[in-house]
Amino acid sequence: MKNNVLLQVFGSIFLAVIAGLLSGPDREILGVTYLQIYTLIGQLFLNALTLVVVPLVASSIIIGTARLGSEGSFGKLGLKTFGYFLTTSLLAILVGWALMTLITPGNLEEIPANLVSAAEKTRLVELENASHSNVFETISQILYKLIPSNILAVASQGQMLGLICFSLLFGFFSSKIESQAAAVMQSFWRGIFQIMMSMTQLVMKALPLGVFGLVAKVIATTGLESVKPVGMFFVTVLLGLAIHAFIILPLMLRFIGGVNPLLHFKAIAPALLTAFSTSSTAATLPITIDCVEKRVGVSNRICSFTIPLASSVNLSGSALYVCCVVLFSAQVYGIHLSFVNQCLVVLMTLLTSLGIAGIPSASLISVLMILQTLGLPLEAIGMILAVERLLDMSRAVVNVFGNTCCAVLIARSEGETTDVIKHFKSSLKA
């Protein structure tokens, strides 16, 4: 099934390239240009994704923080776990930011004329002018977005920073009220989350069609000019994921946890392979727990708390990818973000990483949120859809690996002595 989806996406990309090259920006059918048809298909797909953004992200964050706050006996454990989540996600984001700044894969000699509409050009000029405002004004705007006066208004306008902050507080304090009311609230938001997940999966069934529309539009307007930057973007993200998975996390395992990273890799190999094939941390969750408990040796007390929470809060690979996509979009459209505005991208990516659903391509929703907040054209996503599926599979592996590292490090900090060699050999015998 997963292979069929992958083949469909690659087939859509192939057909989109051919259709875009043949039609160009001006060829018509019955008085309607093919470019308008591509735009309609792609925009409907983007609208369907954007439709579920607010309830999906809000419910996901509320559930995750409520679970953290409700574990009263795990107060110290919760703080350590949450601290690990923030640290690894921030490190991953900084790796992505540094590589995008150094390599700048989205820098084109000039923006293709048909890629940006007149209205978008005006918005881009305003955004670039805003990026040169003084530091105090920029910080003030960030704080206003963090603490809005009307949460419904900012959510309807796509200003997600305030919604995320509100959801974090709402989720935490919903676990501090009387137990019956807390259970009702958490059950309500859990239901909302499950409904939004189902709707998102329904939308993702139209992924091949959406990919066709978005990619065909880009090819029709720019020709093959977009191939080189997209290829460089693909390499840049893979490099960032490799640095995080093969350098940063193993160093933390070795020097903080005292665990051999190579043995840890071997012990959790089934979970990593499942993550790669399904592109989903949520689908991999049962196998991840089994590997961490039986093959690594982390206790059920630690594992049952950290791994499920991490599957919705600690997605460091996805956080790195989201940061890269947003900066790539700004580069493609010629927006030179100031250092302060780049810090805003890093902050928003860190906050949205707390609410990325553990399903295939869910990172696109976080990308849409940040692009909306910054005022960048959503159509920039069309350029990266050609490599989205492969990167989705790769970052799912990094997400799961980071979650298993979290369980090990938290276990060691709680005084557990995880003998990976012993448990790994015993699991093989079994």
**Oligomeric state as shown:** single chain
Strand content: under 5%
The gyration radius over C-alpha positions equals 22 Å
Helical percentage: over 70%
Determine the structural class based on helices, strands and strand pairing. Answer: mainly alpha
Ordered list of secondary-structure elements with their pairings:
Elements: H1 2-23, E1 28-29, E2 32-33, H2 34-51, H3 53-70, H4 75-103, H5 118-130, H6 135-146, H7 151-156, H8 160-174, H9 179-204, H10 207-222, H11 227-255, H12 261-267, H13 269-278, H14 281-296, H15 300-313, H16 316-332, H17 339-352, H18 363-374, H19 381-413, H20 420-429
Antiparallel strand pairs: 1-2
Tell me about this structure.
- This protein is an all-alpha fold and 430 residues long.
- It has one domain: Orthogonal Bundle (Proton glutamate symport protein).
- Helices cover 78% and strands 1% of the residues.
- Strands 1-2 form a two-stranded antiparallel sheet.
- Strand 1 and strand 2 (32-33) form a beta hairpin.
- Helix 10 (207-222) crosses helix 19 (381-413), helix 11 (227-255) runs parallel beside helix 19 (381-413) and helix 16 crosses helix 18.
- It starts with a helix and ends with a helix.
